[in-house]
């Protein structure tokens, strides 16, 4: 007897996590199931066998509660709690509610009052004027729901961050044998349009398989060759089933942006995107550059493989999760030549920070790690906090000892344009500072960009040879692509960095490089495509 494979087990645990989340379970139990799902997906051996032989707790992160679920899943092929929760929290209604802008509890109440559980039934009820039969639905809410049902292509109310957007379209595309498209394929820092394109000549069962995916709780529209589904978070995902002869055309269209595609005029049918461009008589344009209308030849954009090191990573010395050596080993395994350890300094009070003494002791640890890792090199660096008066949080003699100094503002992001600009310029003009990190201090969907005058920042960077960062944390992406473009047009170099706080975080280099590509950067525009000898 074989039992469910690892992918199936992981998917069921994720479904359970999503339902528990909706039901208001604790953050920690939801996270425990999500982590277990991740772990099981990454395990090469069949987990069902571990469960049967009673050895599953040897896997890190599997405790007795999760072991119990796994046993049930392996023995019966299902989890009773999923069925119970589905009845209780009605994910289809929740997804639908989020799409039309109603809170989960309110939508479930409305669904029960009207006896509806799908988009179609809700539409019928709305058309028959029945919405107001439900308690608490006044004319305004009725109008809002009807409007949302009439334009079902509503974007998610908040854009999805890159990592989440890629997880979602990536997993749907993989399960359907298709390709991710929409905003994530252009690496937009927030995604509003998510799409997957599947190649198929016969009108096959792709639409049905899409509707049956655990990610999709509700189908808003469907025909033979397309569908619009909604996730439990209310995020709409489009499916396009394209015949092979037109696959490139449909992929290009579904990738967008709408403005860019519209400016191309009528699109010829072609099996792949390259052939569409050939037929249009245009050079191929990478997805990252498809924003505004453009018909020219693109520059040779920087590639992930051009990056020779990461210039911004944290360790357990401040708020990171891995040691100096672990981070160095991981960076070396990624094929890099160097990694700059840039822990925080003391004045960033919310996390542990380093003073001059700490940095010297850390220097000894780095020297030891470098003996083990040579010729790979860990740089002694800092993410030095820029204080309110523009001075730096470390004495000049310590800064001069370090290999790599970058500076950033943490507290006081709401200061005036004048104050923030003065602080940034003072740091840029300091002889030790090599790069300005996350210059706008934004946290996507949480904190807007600060008011710093970037034109003045770029002018000072150009005069002093200082670089600016595009930070690869998915909720930062700071500078954003448009501003990276402004920086390189001003003649300023970019650092592509991850701001990794863990070994895994080093993988966010893809996000930083994609942002640089969206900002029209070639390898020459990015400082860390160079060897250390070239820029230290
Ligand atoms: Zn920072
Ligand atoms: Zn940092």
List keywords for this structure.
five-stranded mixed sheet; alpha/beta; single chain; 536 residues; binds zinc ion
Structural commentary:
- The protein is an alpha/beta fold and 536 residues long.
- The protein has helices spanning 6-22, 27-42, 47-52, 64-76, 80-89, 91-100, 104-114, 119-127, 139-150, 162-176, 206-212, 247-255, 258-263, 273-280, 324-333, 356-373, 396-401, 417-429, 454-464, 481-489, 509-518, 532-535; strands at 160-161, 179-182, 190-191, 194-199, 218-222, 226-230, 236-242, 309-313, 338-341, 377-385, 404-408, 435-436, 467-471, 494-497.
- The strands form 3 sheets. It has a 7-stranded parallel beta sheet, with helices on one face. The chain has a 5-stranded mixed beta sheet with strand order 2-4-7-6-5, sandwiched between helices. A two-stranded antiparallel ribbon has the order 1-3.
- Strand 8, helix 15 (324-333) and strand 9 form a beta-alpha-beta unit.
- Helix 1 (6-22) runs parallel beside helix 5, helix 18 (417-429) packs parallel to helix 19 (454-464) and helix 20 (481-489) crosses helix 21.
- The site of one zinc ion (ZN) has 4 residues, from loops.
């Amino acid at each position: 007897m074989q039992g469910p494979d690892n992918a199936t087990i992981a998917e069921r645990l994720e479904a359970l996590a999503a339902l528990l989340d909706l039901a208001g379970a604790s953050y920690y139990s939801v996270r425990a199931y999500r982590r277990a799902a991740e772990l099981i997906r990454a395990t090469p051996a069949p987990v069902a066998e571990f469960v049967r032989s009673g050895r599953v707790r040897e896997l890190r992160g599997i405790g007795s509660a999760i072991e119990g679920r796994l046993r049930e899943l392996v023995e019966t092929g299902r989890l009773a709690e999923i069925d119970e929760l589905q009845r209780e929290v009605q994910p289809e209604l929740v997804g639908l509610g989020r799409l039309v802008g109603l809170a989960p509890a309110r939508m479930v109440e409305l669904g029960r009052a009207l006896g509806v559980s799908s988009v179609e039934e809700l539409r019928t009820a709305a058309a028959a004027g029945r919405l107001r039969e439900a308690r608490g639905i006044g004319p305004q809410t009725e109008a809002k729901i009807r409007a949302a049902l009439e334009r079902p292509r509503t974007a998610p109310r908040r854009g999805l961050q890159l990592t989440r957007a890629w997880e979602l379209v990536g997993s749907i595309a993989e399960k359907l044998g298709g390709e991710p498209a929409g905003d994530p394929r252009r690496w937009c820092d927030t995604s509003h349009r998510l799409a997957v394109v599947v190649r198929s000549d016969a009108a096959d069962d792709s639409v049905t398989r899409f509707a049956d995916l655990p990610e999709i709780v509700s189908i808003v529209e469907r025909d033979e060759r397309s569908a619009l589904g909604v996730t439990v978070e209310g995020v709409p995902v489009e499916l396009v089933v394209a015949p092979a002869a037109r696959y490139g055309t449909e992929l290009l269209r579904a990738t967008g942006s709408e403005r860019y595609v519209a400016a191309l005029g009528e699109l010829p049918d072609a099996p792949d995107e390259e052939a569409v461009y050939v037929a249009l008589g245009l050079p191929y344009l990478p997805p990252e550059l498809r924003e505004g209308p453009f018909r020219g030849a693109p520059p040779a954009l920087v590639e992930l493989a051009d990056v020779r090191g990461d210039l911004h990573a944290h360790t357990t010395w401040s708020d990171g999760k891995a040691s100096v050596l672990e981070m160095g080993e991981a960076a070396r395994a990624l094929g890099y030549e160097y990694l700059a350890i840039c822990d925080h300094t003391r004045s960033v009070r919310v996390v542990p920070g380093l003073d001059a003494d700490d940095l010297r002791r850390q220097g000894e640890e780095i020297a030891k790690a470098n003996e083990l890792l040579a010729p790979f090199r860990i740089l002694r660096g800092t993410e030095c906090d820029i204080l309110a008066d523009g001075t730096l949080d470390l004495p000049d003699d310590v800064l001069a000892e370090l290999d790599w100094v970058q500076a950033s503002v943490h507290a006081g992001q709401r200061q005036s344009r004048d104050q923030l600009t003065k602080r940034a310029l003072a740091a840029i003009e300091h002889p030790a500072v090599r790069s300005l990190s996350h210059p706008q201090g934004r946290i996507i969907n949480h904190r807007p960009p600060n008011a710093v005058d970037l034109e003045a920042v770029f002018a000072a960077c150009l005069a002093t040879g200082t670089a600016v960062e595009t930070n690869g944390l998915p909720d930062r992406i700071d500078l954003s692509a448009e501003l990276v473009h402004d920086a390189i047009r001003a003649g300023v170099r970019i650092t592509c960095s991850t701001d990794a706080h863990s070994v895994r975080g080093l993988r966010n280099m893809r996000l930083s490089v994609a942002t640089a590509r969206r900002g029209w950067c070639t390898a020459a525009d990015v400082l860390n495509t160079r060897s250390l000898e070239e820029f230290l």
